[in-house]
Each structure stands twice: as C-alpha cells, then as structure tokens.
Specification:
Keywords: Chloride, Ion transport, Membrane, Transmembrane, Transmembrane helix, Transport. The chain crosses the membrane at residues 32-49, 55-71, 83-107, 157-177, 197-215, 254-275, 281-305. It is a multi-pass membrane protein. The structure is a single chain. The protein is mainly alpha-helical. It has two domains: 4-136, no CATH class; 157-394, Clc chloride channel (Orthogonal Bundle). It has helices at residues 11-18, 29-44, 52-67, 71-74, 77-96, 99-110, 116-136, 159-187, 192-196, 198-213, 223-231, 251-272, 282-306, 328-344, 348-358, 364-381, 386-393, 411-414, 434-446.
C-alpha cells in the first residue's frame, strides 16, 4: 500500500496550499506520522534523497494541526495560511541551520501572500525553531546543522571568472536535471507495471543505487556527509581520509575519481527523484553541483601548482604555497548553491543560506555572482523550476502571481457579443416622441 500524501518532498503541494487550494488530508495527523517515520527510513537507506524538503512538509503539517487548537485560526483560512508560511520557513531553518534563510525561503518560494506582519512572525518562528534545535543537540556537536564549514583564506582576483563560470555550469546542470526528470517521468514511470506497483520502482532504484555506489569512495557516503567533505577546506598539515586534499602528484587521480562519482550521482539523483518515498532534492542537487565544483577547483589548483609564474597567479601569497592558493572547497560550495538555484530558482535565499553555513563575509560576493549567473542560465534553458514542473504534472490549480497578463485588452474586446448591436440615430431631430421610439424598438426586436 502506498500513502501518496507522504511521498516526495511536499514543497510543491505546500506552495499550492498556500496559494489558496485545498488538498484534503495533506497536512493532517496521519500524513505527519507516516511521513516522519518513513523519512527516517528513506534517509537511512543510502538513496540519493535529502530530508530538507520533507522537513518543510512536516513543519507545515505541525502548524496546520496546531491551528485546530485555536478557533481564531481554525475558522479563518487567511490567518491559518500565515501560520503555515511561518511553519514552512521553520522547516528550512531547521534543515540548514539557517533561520534567516528560512524566512527568505518562505518569502521567495512558497508563500503566495506575505504581508509585513507575517514577516516578523515568520522570523520569530524560525528563531524559536533554531533555539530548540540548539538545546536538543541532535548531532551531538553543539551545532544546529550537520554540515558547517569555515574558510579562513580569502579568494584571489583571477578566481572571479571561474566563480561565474561555475555559476553558469550549475544553472545549466539544474535546468538539465529538470528536463531529465520530466523525460524520466514521462517514459519509465508510464510503464504499466510501474504505474500499478510503484513500490517496484523503489526496489529497483534501491538495488541500482547499491550496485553503482558501493565501489566508489565518494558515492557510498551519505549525501549530507559527502557535501560536508566536498565543501571542507584542506589542511595540508594533516592527512585526508577521503583523498580530497591531494598532493601535487595526486591531483589527476582525484579528478578522475570525482568525474566518475559525478556521473554516477547525477544519474542516481535523476532516477531517484519522484519515487514514492519521502525524499527531498535540495542536498542531492547540491552534492552533484559540489562534485562539479570540486573538479573545477582541483583543475584550477593543478594549473596554479604547475605554472606558478603565470601572470594571473602572481597574487597568490608565497607563504602559503601554491597548493593553498586555490581552495577547492569554496568551488564546491559555490557550484552546490548554483546547481540548487538551477533546480529551485531560489536566489537571495541561497546566498543567505551559504553565508550562514560558512559565516564568511569575504565569500558573500562570490556566492552572489555565481547565483546570479546560475539563475540567468537556468531561466534561459528551462523556464520552469522543479516545483513548477511538479505542479503542472500533477495538474494542481496554481495561479502564478509572477506571470504577466496574456493580454491588456478590455473585456468587451475579448468576449463576443450575443447578438449584433442596433443603433438608432436621433441626432437629426430635437425631439423624438416616446411612442415612436418604442415602435421602432419593437420593430428591431422582431427582426
């Protein structure tokens, strides 16, 4: 048996609900319990899924259930949707450990109507959620997020062009992912056996994931752990367990491993997205982008190491050595955010989340440049975000308030008249008797 309301990320449905449409049972107690328990199993399975999207659905369901306690919110759809907007924001704030990013997510992505009073209430909700996570300490590290990195060294001028190229590549990767997901859904999932037994697809994807992932040192890691390893800066005074901080001679080998892992992870993410388990797309898309960024970072590192006297690399401080001039972790995180931007079309939200993950003011500018390039590239290649695609495929009645009107004509020019108009010209006479006018009107009506 498949409980469809608990499958997927739920962000697209939450977005539709906040726009005014009612999906019965989608934010109920049964959905909350089933999705929470199933999310634990799906994340622990090792599939290429994330928990961040389902966090939004779970938090929104909790907000909807809490509204039943107070008649002020239970019987007023407008006020209840304000609570749901704040709940969705807290889900993202808890998932990334970024309360401000959660507020912007609700404003930029899911909320259809977001007045100023809702902004403050949403901010308060996200702060309370972050404090609760801090006190509970679920990761055992005293931090509110599983992956958190700090960059000490600054970036160099010649890297700006690379950051912008990475942004464009990430946006293109996100747009291609949307196209590939649509093709996969319209081809493989149209097979009668898959449509009738959706759990068969889950079994096949799990088997394929195990076969393709076990032999590669990177793909067999959990997505959150892998993203942390990809984005972490290198300390060349200590040995690396994952081999992502290579010596001068090991760089080509690491690049080969990362290219293979990138192809495998990209394919598995495409076929996994949309299966009937609680699954998000945020971190898996960031992992795919992070691998791409790490590859570009190590390529740049290779050129800096082998051609240290090239005029573009003259700004590298000699005290740190040529290997430390380029930080591949920065490239990985920039590409991760750019790919997620290409998939979801979030912009300001992602810049703030990346800043909250790193705490580095020096890298806000590279993050912003890359996200801008990613959004421009993705919009040029694919106008729909992944949630717009899901809304269209599920035929949800969502009215996008960002679309321009299809015409500026008046109603009388669009709606055809029922019958031809009749005009009586009485301008030639200063006075027309009412009886004569009535007679002429009767004659016209009989025609």
């Amino acid at each position: 048996m498949v409980y469809y309301s608990a499958a997927g990320s739920g962000v697209a449905e939450v977005k539709v609900i906040l726009s005014g449409f009612v999906i019965h049972g989608y934010l109920g107690m049964k959905t909350l319990i089933i999705k929470t328990l199933a999310l634990v199993l799906s994340v622990a399975s090792g599939l290429s899924v994330g928990k961040e999207g389902p966090y939004v659905h779970i938090a929104t369901a909790i907000g909807n259930i809490c509204c039943r306690i107070f008649s002020k919110y239970q019987h007023n759809d407008g006020k209840r949707r304000e609570v749901l907007s704040a709940s969705a924001a807290s889900g993202v704030g808890v998932a990334f450990g970024a309360p401000i990013g959660g507020v912007l997510f609700s404003l930029e992505e899911v909320s259809y109507y977001f007045p100023p009073k809702t902004l403050f209430r949403t901010f308060f909700c996200c702060i309370v959620a972050a404090l609760s996570l801090k006190f509970l300490n679920p990761y055992g590290t005293g931090k509110i997020v599983l992956f958190q990195v700090h960059y000490v060294s600054d970036w160099e001028i010649f890297e700006v062009a690379l950051f912008m190229i990475l942004g464009a590549l990430g946006g293109a990767a996100g747009a291609l992912f949307i196209k590939a997901s649509k093709i996969w859904a319209q081809s493989f999932r149209k097979i009668p056996a898959i449509k009738r037994w959706p759990m068969l697809e889950v079994i096949l994807v799990a088997l394929l994931t195990g076969i393709m992932s076990w032999w590669n040192r990177y793909t067999k890691l959990a997505v959150s752990e892998l993203l942390f390893e990809l984005a972490s800066p290198c300390d060349y005074a200590q040995a690396s367990n994952t081999g992502l901080c290579p010596t001068k001679e090991e760089i080509p080998q690491v690049i080969r491993y990362l290219i293979i892992a990138f192809v495998i992870k990209a394919f598995l993410t495409i076929v996994t997205f949309g299966i009937k388990v609680p699954a998000g797309i945020y971190v898996p898309s960031m992992v795919v982008g992070g691998m791409m960024g790490r590859i570009v970072g190590h390529i740049a590192q290779y050129f800096v190491v082998h051609y240290p006297n090239f005029f573009l690399f003259g700004s590298c401080p000699s005290s740190r050595g040529p290997l430390a001039c380029v930080n591949p972790g920065v490239y990985a995180l920039i590409a991760a955010g750019s790919t997620m931007c290409g998939v979801t079309r979030l912009s300001v939200t992602l810049v703030v989340i990346l800043f909250e993950l790193t705490g580095s003011l020096d890298h806000v500018l590279p993050f912003s440049l890359a996200i801008l390039c990613a959004k421009w590239t993705a919009n040029a290649m694919e106008p729909l975000s992944i949630y717009d695609l899901l809304t269209d495929m599920n035929s949800y009645p969502y009215l996008d308030n960002n679309l321009n009107p299809i015409t500026d004509a008046e109603l009388g020019e669009i709606v055809p008249s029922v019958r031809k108009s009749r005009i009586i010209d009485i301008t030639e006479s200063p006075l027309v008797p009412a009886s004569e006018l009535r007679t002429k009107l009767d004659i016209l009506l009989r025609v």
